[in-house]
């Protein structure tokens, strides 16, 4: 049996101290209009300074990881551009039984139902577009599984709230959006991420990579290894968060065996998360000419 999310929650001091990453909708308002570039630089500077102070005080806590996340998410955020279509076969990312949908052009624009639109009222256009694309792709993925057609709302840490008996994950970058869904059964968790094939901004990698990650990247054959590790950790987080119900930062795990389209992970010494043991983790990745895709899923033992 899968333990309930509540069982995995912790009331540790770190939980109480933790600084939440900024809400994406609020955050993106900084990037509007003619002040977008200036605001972005200012936000990054403030966040770097704040994190430097926090890291001295809370160097080994989740607080540090959460603060780092503010920087990382801001630094890797890109300006809005046209969405692209891909011809890559992504089906090998997940086992059969997972419904994977790439958002088409219309999905980026077509309004959602009222309950979902409310979640992006006042958000900048880029955010509205990616949110719509993600929700439409998720609805299409769920429909293929004969799931009830109900709004996909948002949990307290931005996680999508799936219909009872279903699980899933959404990812978007500036020009691509994907959703993966499955019936909650043999597959107990899903996470997906998509990233552009570009290097990470300078200085960001030290917040993402552990020493073990750095070593494993040196030996790898894949392009943009630092982006690959970043993406793998984001999909891993999306996969585990609904089960654990707790934030955990990039320094909580190191990737192992990241090669030949697959990866695994192990918790670091700093990790305060009890990852569920009654399920087996699988991590996969793919490259095409412009993007990197990472996926994780959990199979019940
Ligand atoms: C949650 C997170 C991974 C999302 O990444 P992102 O760069 O904002 O954007 P992505 O396009 O990749 O994914 C966004 C989608 O992730 C999903 N998501 C957000 N928070 C989530 C959570 N707590 N659990 C599961 N899925 C979540 C949402 O569907 C969101 O899209 P939506 O808001 O339109 O519904 C990132 O914001 C974050 O907080 N990272 C820090 C935690 C982390 O990665 N730790 C590493 C542990 S090794």
Description:
The protein is α+β, with helices and mostly antiparallel strands. It has one domain: Ribosomal Protein L22, Chain A, CATH 3.90.470. Helices cover 36% and strands 21% of the residues. The protein is built from 10 helices and 10 strands. It has helices spanning 5-8, 13-17, 24-28, 36-57, 62-76, 114-117, 125-144, 205-208, 211-219, 225-244; strands at residues 99-102, 153-154, 160-161, 166-172, 177-183, 187-196, 253-259, 262-267, 279-287, 291-300. Strands 6-10-9-8-7 form a 5-stranded antiparallel beta sheet. The protein has a 3-stranded antiparallel beta sheet with strand order 1-5-4, covered by helices on one side. Helix 4 (36-57) packs antiparallel against helix 5 (62-76). The longest helix is centred in the N-terminal third of the chain and has 22 residues, at 36-57. The radius of gyration is 18 Å and the shape is globular. It starts with a helix and ends with a strand. The model is unreliable at 1-68 and 74-81 (pLDDT under 50). The structure holds coenzyme A.
Key attributes of the depicted protein:
alpha+beta, 5-stranded antiparallel β-sheet, 10 helices, 301 residues, single chain, 3-stranded antiparallel β-sheet, Ribosomal Protein L22, Chain A, disordered N terminus
Short description:
The protein is of the alpha+beta class and 301 residues long. Helix 4 runs antiparallel to helix 5 (62-76). 36% of the residues lie in helices and 21% in strands.
Element layout with pairings:
Blueprint: H1 5-8, H2 13-17, H3 24-28, H4 36-57, H5 62-76, E1 99-102, H6 114-117, H7 125-144, E2 153-154, E3 160-161, E4 166-172, E5 177-183, E6 187-196, H8 205-208, H9 211-219, H10 225-244, E7 253-259, E8 262-267, E9 279-287, E10 291-300
Antiparallel strand pairs: 1-5, 2-3, 4-5, 6-10, 7-8, 8-9, 9-10
């Amino acid at each position: 049996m899968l333990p309930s999310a509540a069982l995995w929650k912790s009331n540790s001091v770190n939980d109480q101290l933790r600084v939440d990453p900024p809400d994406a909708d609020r955050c993106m308002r900084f990037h509007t209009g003619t002040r977008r570039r200036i605001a972005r630089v200012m936000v990054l500077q403030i966040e770097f300074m704040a994190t430097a102070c926090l890291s001295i005080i809370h160097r080994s806590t989740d607080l540090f990881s959460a603060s780092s996340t503010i920087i990382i998410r801001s630094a890797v955020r890109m300006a809005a551009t046209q969405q692209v279509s891909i011809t890559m076969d992504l089906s090998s990312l997940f086992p059969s039984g997972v419904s994977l949908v790439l958002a088409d052009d219309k999905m980026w624009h077509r309004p959602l139902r009222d309950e979902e639109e409310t979640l992006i009222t006042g958000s900048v256009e880029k955010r509205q577009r990616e949110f719509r694309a993600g929700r439409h792709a998720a609805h299409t993925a769920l429909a293929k599984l004969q799931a009830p057609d109900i709004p996909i709302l948002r949990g307290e840490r931005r996680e999508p709230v799936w219909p009872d008996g279903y699980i899933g994950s959404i990812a978007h970058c500036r020009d691509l959006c994907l959703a993966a869904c499955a019936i909650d059964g043999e597959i107990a968790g899903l996470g997906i991420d998509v990233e552009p094939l570009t290097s990470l901004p300078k200085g960001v990698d030290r917040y993402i990579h552990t020493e073990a990650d750095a070593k494993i990247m040196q030996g790898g054959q894949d392009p943009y290894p630092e982006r690959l590790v970043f993406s793998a950790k984001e999909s891993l987080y999306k996969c585990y968060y609904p089960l654990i119900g707790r934030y955990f930062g990039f320094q909580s795990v190191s990737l192992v065996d990241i090669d030949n389209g697959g990866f695994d992970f192990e918790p670091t010494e700093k990790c305060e998360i009890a990852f569920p043991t009654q399920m087996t983790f699988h991590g996969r990745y793919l490259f095409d000419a412009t993007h990197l895709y990472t996926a994780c899923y959990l199979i019940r033992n």
